Amino acid sequence: MSAEIHICSLVVYARHADTVADRLRPLPGLEIHAVAPGGKLVVVLEADSEAEILDRIREIQGIDQVLAANLVYHQSERVDALEEEIDEDHAP
Question: Which domains does the chain have, with CATH numbers?
Fold first, then answer.
């Protein structure tokens, strides 16, 4: 069986978005793509398993000042499929 990679995006709502962003940055496999006024952060997570994604979401939800962390999108792919070349003539 081929290894998988799981990619998901979240919207994190926080009281102090900049402070929460500083606490999120060190988490493995996490990228912050936007910090908006009003306490919203757009976050992308990558992990080897769905269980790891869920653990990371629970960890985010447990951070002081985080009000909610909502899953927006989740996809899993075989790692070898991501390494295949895309046939430009047949791409969507």
Answer: 4-80 (3.30.70.920)
| Sheet of strand 66-78, all strands in order from the earlier edge strand to the far edge | 30-36, 40-47, 4-14, 66-78
Q: Taking the mean position of all CA atoms in its chain, how far away is CA 52?
A: 11
CA atoms of 75 and 3, how far apart (whole Å):
14
What is the per-residue pLDDT across 41-82, written as a single tens digit (0 to 9) for each? 999 999 999 999 999 999 999 999 999 999 999 999 887 766
pLDDT tens digits for 25-48?
999 999 999 999 889 999 999 999
Hey, which residues does 44 pair with through a beta bridge?
Answer: 9, 31
How many whole angstroms from its chain centre is CA 11?
A: 9
